[in-house]
Amino acid sequence: MSAPRTARSEPLQVTLFHDLLCAYCLVTAERLRALKGEFGDTIQLALRPFPLRTEPEAMLEERERKRAIRTIRAASKEPEGAELSTALWSRSEHPTSSILPLIAAEAAKLQGVEAQARFVEKVRSAALRSGLNVARRDILLELASASGLDAEQFATALELSTTRRAVERSFRDAYTRGVRALPAVAIGDEWLLTGLKSAEEYREAILRYLRRRSAEGAARVLH
Q: Which of 77, 192, 196, 210 has the fewest CB atoms found within 10 Å of its own CB?
């Protein structure tokens, strides 16, 4: 497969709005990573936090816990979700908010996009495969070290108000763009795909956007 040639040289940005406790976001992230391998430098993947549960002190209602378990079981039927586990929500200690893990992902980003990607993958796997409560600071610090991050720098960034504001700003921006549920994938600055999609659906959306962009660029050159 070859992407259409385009008059623009910059890669097409494909943005995943995500929550680190969202099983479908894990599945989507792996599908997008595979597509990145296909498209290469034609596309650029980006992560934007969108916390599904924003009140750290609010108690998790039983119906919410059961819904989380059902979602993981459904996601585990997807090829990318074969190793997902409901252990996180089956134990007495489980997260009441996804804010801190998302702040931690922004703290990791200060050490580079690749560092953030490694950390995010570790956190997702720890929560959704191993059942660890990644809303705990001590676990996040361990995962940062396991991801090869500078632990001291990460710990400092975790406490910065700027990292928290980055999550809050991303949430507001996403809401303005129409994001109401996850996973949500933005293709360029215009198209938004919400809910779990197949890899083929994401591939076709990217190709259609690239073809349209290429046609628009050619039209401008002709004029």
A: 77
What letter would DSSP give residue 1?
A: -
CB atoms within 10 A of CB 24: 22
Dihedral angle over CA of 63, 50, 85, 82, nearest 10: 130
Give the model confidence (pLDDT) of 165-189 as tens digits: 999 999 999 999 999 999 999 999 8
**What letter represents residue 82's amino acid?**
A
The pLDDT tens digits for 10-46 are 999 999 999 999 999 999 999 999 999 999 999 999 9
Task: Count CA within 13 A, CB hemisphere, residue 97.
Answer: 13
Host H or E run for residue 54: none
pTM of the model: 0.90
Amino acid at 80: E
DSSP letter for each residue of 145-200:
HHTT--HHHHHHHHT-HHHHHHHHHHHHHHHHTT--SSSEEEETTTEEEES---HH
For 70-124, the pLDDT digits (tens) are: 999 999 999 999 999 999 999 888 898 999 999 999 999 999 999 999 999 999 9
